[in-house]
């Protein structure tokens, strides 16, 4: 007997525009008091400060709020640990740097652009149609959407700053051996959706997946390992970091709807504090002075303006994962379990 696809039913419900779906069952961590039967604060008992946070656009780790979900073991959300300046920095990286070659873009099958963002402003004015064509770019190990596998010869350098950011979050939640080796950056517009799927292409399925959201809000659905499990609906806001680990790592998930953000934390001018160089102990970043410079230039509203225009109508999501096992140095290295 064919099982009921409860995931599909819930996806179709939240995707509706007429009539608009009720959001009463959507778990919002902003209004956590309304959902204490579904989620709870689980901050680590002892939180160590991380000297890297300020330079990466993050608040002090002692201010972070981590939540778990009773129906989804292994799923956590770190409620916006970013400063306003930090959000601007990461939004800009996703638009200006990460879609550059040698990284792959969905529009490569139509046109190869060495620098998509620069091309969007090639004649001075913003090319909105070209902006909206970009739906994803891949970093590090390039995910092959046809074969669903990674290969060593299809790999670009992974961004140092994103590896550093991922390490800070991994350390906070207790994954001390995590290595950021691949990422998919998704670009959503107000009519975008992401259908139900699982992330199972990596060799290492024990390592967590880190998902960073910026811009407009989204309804995120997560169910179980088959589609008969009715999914929970969770509201993801700008700056939220989702961690999918253990049981949650291979569960079906999807995004049926993008919603207008209730707040614009990237535009909070009172939180646009200039950062200063510090002797932080970085693991991946080689040029800290450049990082500080790149962060601070986003205070200038004129410089930030084109990125502001984009994010007012879009959502960006960075999904970072570890591909290899702990002792593995490449996909062809089969001796990583040797002692």
Characterise the protein shown here.
With 339 residues, the protein is α+β, with helices and mostly antiparallel strands. The protein has one domain (26-321): Sandwich (Jelly Rolls), CATH 2.60.120.590. It has helices spanning 6-15, 84-97, 116-120, 128-133, 160-172, 288-296, 301-311, and strands spanning 39-41, 66-69, 75-78, 104-105, 136-140, 182-189, 194-197, 209-215, 217-222, 232-236, 241-244, 253-259, 314-321. It has a nine-stranded antiparallel sheet, covered by helices on one side. The protein has a four-stranded antiparallel sheet with strand order 7-12-9-10, covered by helices on one side. Strand 2 (66-69) and strand 3 form a beta hairpin. The radius of gyration is 20 Å and the shape is globular. The mean pLDDT is 92.
Short description:
The protein is of the alpha+beta class and 339 residues long. 20% of the residues lie in helices and 20% in strands.
């Amino acid at each position: 007997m064919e099982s009921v696809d409860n995931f599909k039913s819930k996806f179709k419900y939240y995707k509706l525009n007429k009539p608009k779906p009720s959001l009463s069952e959507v778990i919002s961590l902003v209004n956590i008091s309304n959902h204490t039967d579904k989620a709870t604060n689980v901050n680590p008992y002892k939180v160590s400060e991380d000297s890297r946070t300020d330079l990466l656009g993050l608040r002090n780790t002692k201010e972070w709020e981590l939540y778990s979900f009773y129906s989804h073991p292994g799923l956590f959300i770190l409620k916006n640990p970013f400063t306003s300046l930090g959000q601007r920095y990461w939004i800009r990286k996703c638009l200006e740097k990460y879609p550059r070659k040698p990284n792959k873009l969905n529009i490569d099958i139509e046109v190869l652009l060495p620098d998509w963002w620069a091309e969007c402003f090639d004649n001075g004015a913003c090319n909105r149609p070209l902006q909206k064509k970009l739906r994803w770019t891949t970093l590090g190990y390039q995910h092959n959407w046809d074969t669903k596998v990674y290969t060593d010869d299809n790999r670009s350098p992974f961004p140092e700053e994103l590896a550093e950011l991922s390490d800070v979050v991994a350390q906070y939640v207790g994954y001390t051996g995590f290595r950021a080796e691949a990422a998919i950056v998704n670009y959503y517009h107000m009519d975008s959706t992401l259908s139900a799927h699982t992330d199972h292409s990596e060799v290492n399925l024990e390592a967590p997946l880190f998902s960073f959201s910026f811009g407009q809000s989204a309804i995120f659905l997560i169910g179980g390992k088959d589609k008969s499990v009715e999914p929970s609906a969770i509201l993801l806001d700008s700056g939220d970091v989702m961690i999918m680990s253990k049981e949650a790592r291979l569960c079906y998930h999807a995004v049926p709807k993008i919603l207008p953000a209730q707040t614009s934390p990237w535009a909070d001018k009172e939180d646009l504090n200039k950062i200063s160089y510090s002797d932080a102990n970085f693991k991946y970043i080689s040029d800290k002075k450049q990082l500080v410079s790149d962060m601070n230039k986003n205070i200038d509203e004129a410089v930030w303006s084109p990125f502001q225009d984009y994010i007012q109508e879009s959502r960006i999501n960075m999904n970072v994962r570890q591909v290899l096992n702990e002792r593995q140095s490449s996909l062809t290295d089969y001796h990583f379990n040797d002692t």
